[in-house]
Amino acid sequence: MTGYAIVLASGELERITAASIIGSVAAAMDIPVAVFVTMDGLRAFERETVENRDFDGGAIAQAMVTAEDVQVPLFTEQLAQAKEIGPLELYACTMVMDLLGTTLDDYVDVFDGELGVAGFLERAEGKEVIFV
Amino acid sequence: MTGYAIVLASGELERITAASIIGSVAAAMDIPVAVFVTMDGLRAFERETVENRDFDGGAIAQAMVTAEDVQVPLFTEQLAQAKEIGPLELYACTMVMDLLGTTLDDYVDVFDGELGVAGFLERAEGKEVIFV
Amino acid sequence: MTGYAIVLASGELERITAASIIGSVAAAMDIPVAVFVTMDGLRAFERETVENRDFDGGAIAQAMVTAEDVQVPLFTEQLAQAKEIGPLELYACTMVMDLLGTTLDDYVDVFDGELGVAGFLERAEGKEVIFV
């Protein structure tokens, strides 16, 4: 195992946050992480969604957003920080962007680029795949 | 790693499609793929569900179904094609079929057979497990 | 691969049961399993939730609860049995417990302790990670 390849396909804040924490902690431990954001996961990274905190999710997501004592930064900040600390890369799914008619400019500024599934599987080779 | 072992437990069209694309692309790259369809995932393969396109899912699933430019074939067609091209096998979960009182005849004709969890874990040995 | 590291982040009975069966079957095959329960998954292990069978889930979850012929024990019983038979360990997520203001006493008595994400990733090293 030479790292984690995370496929982030869920739009639920709880799952996105779990993926973001796992990726960030791994990167801080100097473990290479490649995150491929696709399907409903990609919608959560849209600028408008993030600005309005318009995420899907339930009670724990609410607790995260309103918590004062426990600081859980939003996944976008967490991933941006992780990229400065360790070997973490983020890619947006080309197919879903084509479907939605979006470009990287429509998403918060954390992506290293866009990839197709074949391109991601190549980067995932030898890595532990985590489908969220 | 000698392939992917995909546990398809979700009934959401976005997640099923993501799993189907990953499996198909891997098979096309000559990577062995074993897909184990269980829980809500199995319901999505029922003949009636597929005929009526009666899938769970949100905005991206809708975009997929209505898209004219971007051709995303339905997961059942995609998996059928993948089986002709590369080493992809599909198994239905015996336990859930027992629970629902169904047989393989109730599902679209893409399965290589049915398996219990122990049987699937044996096939998953040495493979990268992806739980969808 | 020296075992499975299961991240149980979903609160849906179907997914929890699938994870519990995979973990139990693996442990019975003498494969080491570490389960990390977090996010909505942790809520499903609250004493009150379990006593009232107040789980999220759909038709298959219902069938499981009401089935008379097919015996699918509740995931809590299944995991408790698995721990007696094979090398399966369960950990509750410290961060989510802090967020919810809960302690291990609030959960059914199947946990071996609590862990942070870094601690879990250390235990996951060399294991096949399954994110549910």
UniProtKB/TrEMBL annotation, chains A, B, C:
- Gene3D superfamilies linked: DsrEFH-like
Q: Which InterPro entries match?
A: DsrE2-like, DsrEFH-like
Entry-linked SUPFAM superfamilies = DsrEFH-like (SSF75169)
Name this polypeptide is given: Peroxiredoxin family protein
